[in-house]
Amino acid sequence: MASYIREFIARNVRNPQGYFGSWFAKNAFIKSNTPLIENTIPLVGIQPDHVVLEVGFGPGVGLEIALKHVQQGLGKLYGIDISEPMIQAATSRLGSNITNQKVELIQGDVVNLPFEDNMFDRVYHTNCFYFWSDHEKAAKELYRVMKKDSMMVTTMEKERVEDAQRRGFMKYGNPDVDNYVSCVEKAGFSNVKVENKCMEKSDAPFIVIYATAKKE
Predict the structure, then answer these.
(1) Which end of the chain, C or N, has fewer beta carbons within 10 A?
(2) DSSP state of 130
(3) Could you tell me which residues come within 8 angstroms of residue 92 by beta carbon, excluding any fewer than 6 positions away?
(4) What is the domain-level CATH number for residue 91?
(5) Contact 161, 170 (CB under 8 A)
């Protein structure tokens, strides 16, 4: 029974599927990831006219918070997630903001982004990169769709993720920060910097990785 539960959790934290999988993932993500998301958005530096992409948006909490920064400007938020149940959950959460075209949600994979070159001013993702099927391809795709001098912000609760890995819940993820950083640099990103931070309310530790899309 214990191995079945670990397998169920491992599969559904990577790609929530089915009623029980999506219910578990949505509630688990909201409870565990919201504090990190709340601490991430201020680091992204979103301006009212920015076009912004969130990768792996889950139930849409991050997009809902980021929306406040573009609501009064010409900016727009895009989200891409591999899971259909997460698309549905985020659609329900964001409602009228999708109708008025301030937010657009897309089901897809970060290794094959359905966006034009040089499209985004900011890209961010939280507790996400370790589930990507190919870090090198994903990094190249993100670099491609970002504007010159735009910034990507990656955040991760490293200690919590490593604990989940030890307990068998990260069977389908690769939380190797050094590997991720190496792939980002190979893709062409500059000024790649890793910082250790603590959350404002709980003082829980997390890491943030900054990367700039320097282009000719």
Answers:
(1) C
(2) G
(3) none
(4) 3.40.50.150
(5) yes
**Coil/strand/helix, residue 92:** helix
Exposure on the CB side of residue 164, measured as CA atoms within 13 A: 23
- Residue range(s) defining the domain that contains residue 25: 2-213
Instruction: Give the SS3 label for residue 197.
Output: strand
Q: Residue 42 and residue 167: Cα distance in Å, rounded?
A: 32
Grade residue 4 by pLDDT with cuts at 50, 70 and 90: very low
Q: How far is CA 197 from CA 64, 194, 214, in A?
A: 23, 10, 25
Q: What percent of the chain has pLDDT over 70?
A: 80
**Considering the entire predicted model, what is its pTM?**
0.87
CA distance 188 to 150: 12
Helix (H) or strand (E) holding 30: helix 18-44
Residue-level pLDDT at 1? 39
**Number of helices and strands (H, E) in the chain?**
8, 7
| pLDDT tens column, 16-30 | 555 544 555 555 555
Maximum separation of any 2 CA atoms in the chain, in Å: 55
Q: pLDDT tens for residues 42-84? A: 999 999 999 999 999 988 999 999 999 999 999 999 999 988 8
The strand pair at 51-55 and 146-156 is best described as unpaired
Strand 103-107, strand 120-126: pairing: unpaired
